[in-house]
Amino acid sequence: MKGAKPINTRELRVLLHLLEERSVTRTAEALDMTQPFVSLVLRRFRDMTGDPILVRSGAKLVLTVRGQEMIEPLRSALSGIDQAVGQPAAFDPQNAKGEFRIASADCMEAIILPNLIARLQDAAPGVRVLVRAVDQAYDYAGALERDELDVVISNWPGAPQHLKTARLLTEDVVCLFGANHPFANQESISLQDYLAADHLAPVARSKSDPGPIDSHLAAAGLKRDIRVMLPEFNLIPHMLLNGQLVFTSSANFARYQCSILPLANLPAPAECGSLDFYLLWHERAQADARNTWLRQQIIAVARSLKS
């Protein structure tokens, strides 16, 4: 109707209740409104539609054909409004479907992922877990923004400022080596011995980011002799078995590798610093119940680890 006052959701809810209850009195009581107001809403919609909507049949009110036809569209419209602007539903992991999409620095795979995936499969059995590695060419920040990823687990600082960051854990640094390496006969590794050793390292992310170990050493004016660099992190322990190479890594990673391969480890010199591990996600997912639950699981797994 031209010039009519716009409809508001309060009036739509009153109308729906009227259609379902077919009583002005019961609608007013249920919605804690006055009967005159409910009658006013009914009159307004009668004027707008040109249909009485509710008509008297003896001692009761019954719906007109048009009134009956209005119920489902009203329910659908009000449900859509509630979904759009109401509080989001809590995440129910036991009944959830879909995917958790995680990007992980490859050094984290043996530290966090086994326990995390077991935890997710137990708590959210209907959700698949997709994990991809983070390499130099992968735009993980863009993937988070485009909703191609839920979270990133990393061991490098300096994430883009528009990403949310939480420190997962700080790990001691150790030297990992084969059973025949000279370090295997020592009780500790001096800085002099460490710098004189032949080192194995993963390929640096970039020239400006040589990695946390070499960044710590550079800050102390030191440089180790990296003789071999590998692009595949999980090949590194196998390269230590029969050679004279040393790999500097986190205590948990070394402990795991020593449990499955004939390797040994000792604490690295203090100048190598420590390793900090981070959880990254985008601001767009900060309040999302599903993403929040996933982050909580990752943080819980990280806190359960002990160096």
From TrEMBL:
InterPro entries: LysR-type_TF, LysR_HTH_N, LysR_subst-bd, WH-like_DNA-bd_sf, WH_DNA-bd_sf
Signal peptide: none
Protein's UniProt keywords contain rRNA processing: no
SUPFAM superfamilies the UniProt entry points to: Periplasmic binding protein-like II (SSF53850), Winged helix' DNA-binding domain (SSF46785)
GO molecular function, one term: DNA binding
Sequence ranges assigned to domain HTH lysR-type in this UniProt record: 7-64
Keywords assigned by UniProt, alphabetized: DNA-binding, Transcription, Transcription regulation
Stored PROSITE patterns: HTH_LYSR
Family statement: Belongs to the LysR transcriptional regulatory family.
Name of the protein in its database record: Transcriptional regulator, LysR family
Organism of derivation: Thalassovita litoralis
